[in-house]
Amino acid sequence: MINRVLLLVKVKMLRTILLVTAVSLSAGPALAQSGDPIRQILADFDRIDTNGDSVISIAEYRDLQIARWPRIDRNGDGFLTLDDFPRFAAARARRLLAEIADLDVNGDGRISRDEFIHGPAPLFHRADQNTDGVLTRTELEAAAA
Ligand SMILES: [Ca+2]
Ligand SMILES: [Ca+2]
Ligand SMILES: [Ca+2]
Fold it and tell me: pTM for this one?
């Protein structure tokens, strides 16, 4: 499954999104069950929609990132770096990190918890078709199709 994700990474538009998925896949079996983060959000919609208003706000999405972080930062040092890819060859891990370098807002070569949670959210904005700042089930279903 990881190899498939790496192949798809060549599709430019989806690059960052899929690489974040690849990071998730390397980070734990729980997230490896589905290769598509949009489908994961759909499957968990009611749990992610904590205020029950039937849409997922950016705040609710950030809460999801907070929940995911411990599986991303595998060695628990507060940063996503090469050390968090124990199952990847160094060259591949370096390439993955380079592809999500957008998240490294302060450019120190590593992605902090804060940058991961509060940084650009390409997946969210891609799915938010009417740009009203919230995701409906319909928007997520369209994005997953
Ligand atoms: Ca909500
Ligand atoms: Ca780490
Ligand atoms: Ca929307």
Answer: 0.66
From residue 45, give the alpha-carbon distance in Å to each of 14, 67, 137.
22, 14, 8
Taking a C-beta distance cutoff of 8 angstroms, is the pair 41, 56 a contact?
yes
Give the model's confidence band at 12: pLDDT under 50 very low, under 70 low, under 90 confident, else very high: very low
H or E element that contains 80: strand 79-80
Taking the centre of ligand 3 as the mean of its atom positions, its distance from the CA of residue 58, in whole angstroms, is 10
**Nearest ligand to residue 135 Cα:** 3
For residue 50, the CA-to-ligand 1 centroid distance in Å is 6
Q: How confident is the model at residue 75 (pLDDT cuts 50, 70, 90)?
A: very high
Whole domain around residue 93: which residue ranges?
2-144
Q: How far away, in angstroms, is 76 Cα from ligand 2 center? A: 5
pLDDT at 140: 97
* Closest ligand to residue 84's CA: 2
Domain count, the chain: 1
Q: Locate 100 and state its tokens.
A: 């999500």
Ligand at shortest distance from the CA of 63: 1
